[in-house]
Amino acid sequence: MTKIQAGKSRASGRITLAMVAQRAGVATMTASRAISQPDMVSQALRDRVQQAVDELGYVPNRAARALASSQSKVIAVLVPSLSNAVFTEVLAGIQDALDADDYQILIGNTRYSDREEEKLIATYLQSNPDGMLLSGLTHSPRVQQILAANRMPVVSMMDMSADPERLSVGFSQFQAGHAMTRYLLDKGHKRIGFIGAQLDERTLRRAEGYRKAMVDAGLADIKLEVMVGEPSTIALGAELLGRMLAQAPDCDAIFCCNDDLAHGAIYQCQRRGIAVPSQLAVCGFNDLPASAWMNPSLTTIGTPRYRIGFEAATLLRSVIKGEQPAHRQIDLGFTLMARESA
Amino acid sequence: MTKIQAGKSRASGRITLAMVAQRAGVATMTASRAISQPDMVSQALRDRVQQAVDELGYVPNRAARALASSQSKVIAVLVPSLSNAVFTEVLAGIQDALDADDYQILIGNTRYSDREEEKLIATYLQSNPDGMLLSGLTHSPRVQQILAANRMPVVSMMDMSADPERLSVGFSQFQAGHAMTRYLLDKGHKRIGFIGAQLDERTLRRAEGYRKAMVDAGLADIKLEVMVGEPSTIALGAELLGRMLAQAPDCDAIFCCNDDLAHGAIYQCQRRGIAVPSQLAVCGFNDLPASAWMNPSLTTIGTPRYRIGFEAATLLRSVIKGEQPAHRQIDLGFTLMARESA
DNA sequence: CTGAAAGCGCTTACAG
DNA sequence: CTGAAAGCGCTTACAG
Question: Which stretches make up the HTH lacI-type domain (chains A, B) (predicted)?
Answer without folding.
Answer: 15-69
